[in-house]
Amino acid sequence: LIAWRTADHPSIGRRWTLCGAYMLSAVGLLTMALLRNFGGGYPIAFSALTIISKCGAAAAFQLSYIYPTELFPAAIRTLALGVGNVPGRLAGILAPQAANVPSLWLELSLGVLALLV
């Protein structure tokens, strides 16, 4: 709901809302990697960062359908949306695999997912 309200706000707009959603997700994932590596046992903070990262990724995914329709003409819109969805689909494929990675490499998997976002 916050992304919807800020995307239609005249001073913020769709571009900054989309960038903010991507940054929210990436910063949440990187913070989870650092917290796990240096912080240790903070399960509540880790869960909160997981929810924050998921909300950022979901907002960016929804806004990625709205914003390109204003940028591209109708002739190349489907190609542009297809190319734009590739990183989101790759992250969706790789995200469940992060749970199967041994605890030593969890930081690496969270870092890779943050770079994909």
TrEMBL record:
<dbReference type="GO" id="GO:0016020">
    <property type="term" value="C:membrane"/>
</dbReference>
<feature type="transmembrane region" description="Helical">
    <location>
        <begin position="21"/>
        <end position="38"/>
    </location>
</feature>
<protein>
    <recommendedName>
        <fullName>Major facilitator superfamily (MFS) profile domain-containing protein</fullName>
    </recommendedName>
</protein>
<feature type="transmembrane region" description="Helical">
    <location>
        <begin position="44"/>
        <end position="67"/>
    </location>
</feature>
<keyword id="KW-0472">Membrane</keyword>
<keyword id="KW-1133">Transmembrane helix</keyword>
<dbReference type="InterPro" id="IPR036259">
    <property type="entry name" value="MFS_trans_sf"/>
</dbReference>
<keyword id="KW-0812">Transmembrane</keyword>
